[in-house]
Amino acid sequence: TPVPSIKEEASKVVNELKTRKAGSMLKTAEFYEKRKKYKSAIMYYEDIVNNLSGTEEAVYAKERIAELKKR
């Protein structure tokens, strides 16, 4: 099997870190949402969308933003 290049390995590490960061921020957004602090929740969801695009969490965050802005 070929040895992964440094670039490929770095890309995997970056993606893993993005996923972890998104998960952490998502928990914070959900914390605020459960306490009906919708503006704070939206702020965290928007941060996920803006800074961690390409993650499943960003897709979910977009959905939550749309739902919360209806309130």
Record the SSE blueprint.
Blueprint: H1 6-34, H2 38-51, H3 56-68
Helix pairs in contact: 1-2, 1-3, 2-3
Distance between the termini: 54 Å
Give a count of the beta strands, DSSP E runs of length 2 or more.
0
What structural class is derived from the secondary structure elements? mainly alpha
**Would you tell me the overall average pLDDT?**
92
Shape type = elongated
Count of DSSP H/I helices = 3
The assembly state of the depicted protein chains is: single chain
Uncertain residue segments: none
Helix content: over 70%
Q: Biggest β-sheet, characterized?
A: none
- How much strand? under 5%
Order of helices and strands: HHH
Radius of gyration: 15 Å
Write up what this structure looks like.
The protein is mostly helical and 71 residues long. It is 79% helix and 0% strand. The chain is built from 3 helices and no strands. Helix 1 runs parallel beside helix 3 (56-68). It is elongated and about 55 Å long.
Summarize the structure.
Helices cover 79% and strands 0% of the residues. It has 71 residues and is mainly α.
